[in-house]
Design a protein that fits this description.
This protein is of the alpha+beta class. The protein is built from 12 helices and 12 strands.
């Protein structure tokens, strides 16, 4: 059996540079990879990224989060993908969001990888992430930054994020929330994040004084909580005075009975 194939069998996904550490001559390494692809022992996922095809499973598909870590050496799993990696969301992955110095958009198999330029270095953790075939260390945004980034990028609808945060196991540090919001300097985020956390405070155990810290940052402007997929041909919004926002009618119906009236 080929030495490279044996060495990478457990790892499952690897880059050309990783293969080059095993086969020192780069051209010989490239030739070996091409031969293994032809023999259907490995699959070329994209330029310089490869996946093992196990001998006992020709239909093997590598974990999308694992693939994302190979796309950029500085990859930080973010937005709703961080929620998935942190095991707070179980839905099937369709898009993977990650931060890097070098933004791009890639399609590998049936997954779209959205690489967003990362201008901020705060709020990240290294965690052990379990795939179906091994355990790897990845870098993810922590839960506080993840909440803000899901709102900021609209990678989750507000009601989806509210549903996820109705989990008493999720612990939120409001001082981090305030610190990160101040770093982003986007006034609408105070309104949106405040609304989401307020709607889930019975689960996250945040206190009213925590929300006062956010309310002090609110501007007088009334913002619209626009979301992807909502057309601007008179979408149905209702005013929610507690957070000075126009929000989609379905979201208004979801949260008003839970956290009071406007």
């Amino acid at each position: 059996m080929n030495k490279l194939y044996q060495k990478m069998y457990t790892q499952k996904i690897f880059t050309l540079n990783e293969a080059n550490k095993i086969i020192k001559n780069r051209q010989v390494c490239k030739n070996t990879l091409t031969r293994l692809v032809t023999q259907r022992l490995i699959k070329r996922l994209r330029n310089n990224i490869y996946s093992i095809i196990p001998l006992d499973d020709s239909n093997f598909e590598p974990d999308p989060i694992h693939i994302a870590t190979k796309l950029r050496p500085d990859a930080i799993i973010s937005c709703n993908s961080a929620i998935y990696a942190l095991e707070w969301m179980k839905e099937e992955v369709k898009n993977v969001f990650l931060y890097s110095k070098y933004p791009s958009k890639n399609r590998i198999g049936h997954i779209t990888y959205k690489i967003i330029k990362n201008k901020q270095t705060f709020g990240t953790d290294k965690i052990e992430y379990k795939t179906s075939y091994n355990q790897i260390e990845i870098t993810v945004t922590n839960i506080e930054r993840t909440i803000i980034d899901c709102v900021r990028t609209r990678s989750l609808k507000l009601e989806e994020l509210i549903t996820i945060l109705k989990n008493p196991k999720i612990q939120i540090d409001m001082s981090r929330i305030i610190n990160y919001l101040d770093k982003y300097k986007k006034p609408i985020l105070y309104n949106k994040v405040g609304l989401v956390l307020d709607a889930t405070k019975s689960f996250t155990k945040l206190q009213e004084e925590d929300f006062e810290k956010i309310r002090k940052k609110l501007s007088k402007k009334i913002f619209y909580a626009r979301e992807h997929g909502i057309k601007l041909i008179r979408p149905r919004y209702k005013y929610y005075g507690k957070w000075n926002m126009m929000i989609p009618e379905r979201l208004h119906e979801q949260i008003v009975p839970k956290i009071g009236t406007i």
